[in-house]
Design goal:
Elements (H helix, E strand, L loop, with lengths): L10 H14 L3 H17 L3 E4 L6 E4 L5 H10 L4 H12 L3 H13 L1 H30 L1
Antiparallel strand pairs: 1-2
Helix pairs in contact: 1-2, 3-5, 3-6, 4-5, 5-6
């Protein structure tokens, strides 16, 4: 549930918000909501940043992959506990601390990360269907 809130912003900040909202083709309210949400998350989890891309903004590790990619790989990586994290960190060429950070971020915001993983799986299935159709068309 949302409720009305009032903040006083200086003119320069408000102009920057309005410019960014036009560039992003979203309302100022929507932009402020997403900036506050992302800002609070990155304050809670130093080392996590948000990046823009074709599929929208997503949580990522500073200097590393997106959080959802680490979690996707961790789910299917063999082993248990810290051994699992250490082996994946070695495979990805990341410090163990960053894989642990991605894990902690996921535990705090599972819906956000699960949605990214689901979207990636749907995209992969779509590509697979298109490939099969192309192969069937070209082999007949």
């Amino acid at each position: 549930m949302s409720r009305p809130t009032s903040f006083r912003l200086d003119d320069e900040l408000l102009k920057r918000l309005e410019t960014e909202s036009r560039a992003a083709a979203e309302s100022v309210t929507s932009l402020v909501r997403s900036l506050l949400d992302e800002g609070l998350k990155i304050r809670q989890f130093p080392g996590v940043v948000y990046r823009s891309g074709p599929a929208g903004r997503r949580a990522a590790l500073v200097g590393g992959p997106d959080v959802w990619e680490v979690i996707r790989d961790l789910r299917c990586w063999p082993g248990r506990g810290m051994q699992r994290i250490e082996c994946l960190a070695k495979e990805l060429g990341l410090p163990v601390s960053l894989v642990k950070l991605a894990t902690e971020f996921y535990c705090a915001y599972p819906d956000e990360i699960d949605a990214r993983i689901d979207a990636d799986e749907r995209a992969a299935q779509q590509i697979q269907r298109q490939t099969l159709r192309r192969e069937a068309l070209l082999s007949s």
